[in-house]
Amino acid sequence: MGATKILGIGRNREVLAAIKALAPRRIDTLTLGDTPVADWLLSRTDGIGVDVLIDCSGRGASASVTAAALRALKRGGIAVNIGALTEKLEIEPIAYMVKSLQFRGSNWFTTGEGQLMADLAGVGALDLSVLQTHAYPLDGVNDALAEVKTRPGGLVNIVVNPDR
């Protein structure tokens, strides 16, 4: 959608490899623990920092990873939290003032934004074929929740479909 470079960070090497394969010349990935997050992000942006950080951390994720990524925001950068991070996140207000940074929350997308994505997919401008949908009938909701707990991540979409 216009990003010239996408930097992905996560815990699962296989999922990250699948994401990188979507656009190997535009996407670069880091498996947590391989290199310090802020250092890696800055090294991939010629020391300037990232324009936008979208944090999709799940429950149980360490706030230290998010804090490290925040340190790699460039001047005027925006951090958007759409994850389920439950640990407290310490921020440095002076850094936000001096670098004119923003931190905001989002509940993924509005109905209108969802419709826009569906429209883009409908005309072939957005390829959703890489997503794996694991659909469960309503009486299988507990099975769906059990799969969510395994945290498959990445390109897996777990859905409860009452009409199945």
Describe this structure in words.
This protein is an alpha/beta fold and 164 residues long. It has helices at residues 13-20, 37-43, 63-70, 93-98, 111-122, 141-149; strands at 6-10, 27-31, 50-55, 73-81, 102-105, 132-136, 156-160. The strands form 3 sheets. It has a 3-stranded parallel β-sheet with strand order 3-4-5, with helices on one face. Strand 3 (50-55), helix 3 and strand 4 (73-81) form a beta-alpha-beta unit. The longest helix is centred in the last third of the chain and has 12 residues, at 111-122. The chain is globular and about 55 Å long.
Mean pLDDT across the residues is 92
What does the main sheet amount to?
A: 3 strands, parallel
- What share of residues are in beta strands? 15-25%
Order of helices and strands: EHEHEHEHEHEHE
How many distinct helices?
Answer: 6
Helix content: 25-40%
How large, in whole angstroms, is the Cα Rg? 17 Å
Q: Which geometry do the CA atoms define?
A: globular
* Helix-and-strand structural type: alpha/beta
Poorly predicted spans: none
Query: Span from first to last CA?
Result: 33 Å
Strand order of the largest sheet: 3-4-5
Please give the number of β-strands: 7
